[in-house]
UniProtKB/TrEMBL annotation:
Descriptive protein name: Methyltransferase
This protein's UniProt keywords: Methyltransferase, Transferase
GO molecular function, one term: methyltransferase activity
Species this chain originates from: Chryseobacterium formosense
InterPro entries in alphabetical order: EgtD (IPR035094), EgtD_Methyltrsf_superfamily (IPR051128), MeTrfase_dom (IPR019257), MeTrfase_EgtD-like (IPR017804), SAM-dependent_MTases_sf (IPR029063)
The keyword Signal appears for this protein: no
Source taxonomy: Bacteria, Pseudomonadati, Bacteroidota, Flavobacteriia, Flavobacteriales
BP GO terms, sorted: methylation
Ranges where the Histidine-specific methyltransferase SAM-dependent domain occurs: 21-323
NCBIfam families linked to this entry: egtD_ergothio (TIGR03438)
Domain of life: Bacteria
Length: 326
């Protein structure tokens, strides 16, 4: 039987019109902007996979180091005290890192369910199948949809203590204001005794950070340019990809690592039947990957209504999984 992958399915009219609306809204702003949440189509997923394999992209290995080697310390910090609980992971993907924590908890006979939340039903099915083989005793309750709706759903299914995971420095793809609002919204969905565990990439040598996003092989550039190609594919647009160049910068003071696509000439592009004018050297703001200091993380967590209880670092101290109590 051929399993049809979600990304093989034709985009439905509703999501096409949302995509079109978002793209046009962003391209009519000054400066022009596209949302990096649209990076991840089938091609974008492959490119992100390649990014994670690049020697310069340290983030994945740092967080893997934490989960492989410090799941015991994480567990101690979760204040479990013999009670049953649910591990809810926002944007679980294939759970590469969290699996180490799940295994540690299973091996030590903790009573818990795993509720991965993802917008890709295909990824969730595959994760469930793999976990059935790797951890047959684990109860997995996949929740397909948007984070906040699915958190709500999780509360309807179970009233147990919640441990909410948000890994991979995904919080970095929001600007600081959006990240703060996101944390406040998560806090509003939790109850006393619940825990939020969130992964942040830390400020460090600026060159190390810039190198991770400005790789000489041009994979990050291709990752950004793929969004223009996706808009061509799905919204019948006519971007000439060669007419745009990726530009990356990192500001050590604010911690913002930002990517842009720069128009190499004056040009007109048709998107969703509308003509969009680009001046030579005009840029599209594509993505922020925000880096934090430990102090900034502490301030944000406390201001969002959490008690920032523990920071678990990788061996280089480049990345932190921060554990926040309600
Ligand atoms: C998914 N996210 C945390 C990545 C990051 O590091 O900001 C996305 C990415 N963009 C370019 N390289 C990786």
């Amino acid at each position: 039987m051929k399993i049809q992958l979600a990304e093989d399915l034709p985009i439905d009219n509703h999501s096409k019109s949302d995509f079109c609306k978002d793209v046009l809204e962003g391209l009519k702003q000054n400066p022009k902007k596209l949302s990096s949440k649209y990076f991840y189509d089938k091609q974008g997923d492959k490119l992100f996979q390649k990014i994670m394999e690049m020697p310069e992209y340290y983030l994945t290995n740092c967080e893997l180091d934490i989960f492989q080697n410090k799941s015991n310390i994480i567990t101690e910090s979760l204040q479990l005290q013999g009670q049953a609980f649910d591990i809810i992971e926002l944007g679980s993907g294939d759970a590469t890192k969290s699996k180490y924590l799940l295994k540690f908890l299973s091996e030590n006979n903790f009573d818990f369910n795993y509720m991965p939340i993802d917008i890709s039903g295909n990824i969730l099915h595959e994760l469930q199948r793999n976990l059935e083989i790797e951890m047959p005793d684990l109860t997995v309750i996949p929740l397909e949809g948007e984070y906040f709706e699915m958190l709500e759903k999780a509360s309807g299914i179970s009233a147990r203590k919640k441990i909410v995971l948000f890994l991979g420095a995904n919080i970095g793809n929001m600007n600081k204001q959006e990240a703060f609002q996101f944390c406040k919204d998560i806090r509003a969905k939790l109850n006393a005794g619940d825990v939020f565990l969130v992964g942040f990439d830390l400020k460090k040598n600026p060159q190390t950070i810039l190198d991770a996003y400005n790789d000489p092989a041009g994979i990050t550039a291709a990752f950004n340019l793929n969004l223009l190609a996706r808009i061509n594919r799905e919204l019948d647009a006519d971007f000439t990809i060669e007419n745009f160049r990726h530009y990356q910068n990192y500001e050590p003071d604010s911690g913002a690592c930002r990517s842009f696509l720069v128009s190499l000439k004056n040009q007109v592009v048709t998107v969703c039947d509308e003509r969009i004018l680009f001046d030579e050297n005009e840029f599209i703001d594509m993505e922020v990957s925000q880096k934090y200091s430990v102090e900034e993380i502490g301030q944000m967590g406390e201001a969002a209504g959490f008690h920032v209880a523990e920071n678990i670092y990788d061996s280089k101290k480049w990345f932190v999984d921060s554990i926040w109590y309600v």
